[in-house]
């Protein structure tokens, strides 16, 4: 009996051990494939010195720029934001789709009310079907002038990049810097009815570079080894400027935009609009030395901008700091031809593993016109205030989160009567117009049926002035199927669409005096913000939101709100 018992006990132990090992392996594999990444973001005010003097700025964890979020495709990410600053705060995880989880999207008064001083809120989301470079930023007031950082989403374990593996990589975030308090500058501009003062410098990873005074120590440098390849993860966090970027003595190979792989192409410079990200490969194959990397704005209309050049240094290992760097040949500030040519080269990879699922049939056609104008303002300098509109509607921000109002069926917060086309057609890009064309104000949204396919044409106009506009759609990627200069022609232009491998993005640059056509499938229920990513224009009302209805399936409805959702 003892023998049988002992034999039986040994067999049982071996069976339990096998089950334990098998379970442990499964658990390890599961954790490797889908970990939970936790971050603590403390919103605080710190003194930071740039351009010969210090000033207090709002930061995350005392860092400028803020920390980079690292995750892997499939991970769950929890970021607890504790607000110790004097401003209310919300943070947007730009480009993350947040399936049925708009509560984690972040734009103030759209998907949440802001986090009040002394309070906290945990953004809890899954990274599903995305990999690459995105970014995060404050989404209230102009606080993203200093509250921003990168998001790096790595592919699943054992999954290779669809391009040559880099030997190393570096995050590059472009921004702007003001001498004064940005919020006070904005208030002064609004009180006068004028644009606020432009920035005093551009920055690369928070540093303007040695072409600015007192900036020798405020210069970002990247060391490279001859013969190696480097992946640069680039985000444009500037508030109001599209930027050219180039590296002296080196070409770049574009391999990704807005966290979507592209067909690789080589270029001497890139163009990146506010809100966009771009990954490039750089081969350190030039003569060992020190080379400036530079950013400068692109603006092809006579509008005042901060046209100064920010620089960083690409330095080969072993080369002394005494070697003077050479400057790159950037495109001219108004080089429209380069801008259009560069954007035309962007194509989705459209491979078996990374297909471009472009909607070929369209259920809903939307046509939105961009308008700049003036509103009556008796207290302003000229008796008017600058404003902006989509389809002649200047968006009015609510005081309650739109997603909360939609989810709880609150009345009186918004209406669902945003028009699918402008109320009065005109020659959109003809002679300059100064009339507002009966612009109205309101919190008017557009309702979209779940899983329907949408084509949205965004048309620039010459109301006050033509200008390029980067438009960002929250909660979605979309395909840029067409773009052109002049007025969109619905009879002719769709025949020129690229429906095979168009670039897939979350932020599209509408060209000056032109149009862009995008398509997407409305498979993400909730309330999703759509706005110009020039902070100046967003503040003037160049924005709206889409209410995507719940679907019939199990996971096709907006999730219940989290218990710590900030109150209004």
From TrEMBL:
PANTHER family: LACCASE, MULTI-COPPER OXIDASE
Pfam families in alphabetical order: Cu-oxidase, Cu-oxidase_2, Cu-oxidase_3
Protein name (database record): Laccase
Record's cofactor remark: Binds 4 Cu cations per monomer.
Main location: secreted
Uppermost EC category: oxidoreductase
Keywords for this protein: Apoplast, Copper, Glycoprotein, Lignin degradation, Metal-binding, Oxidoreductase, Repeat, Secreted, Signal
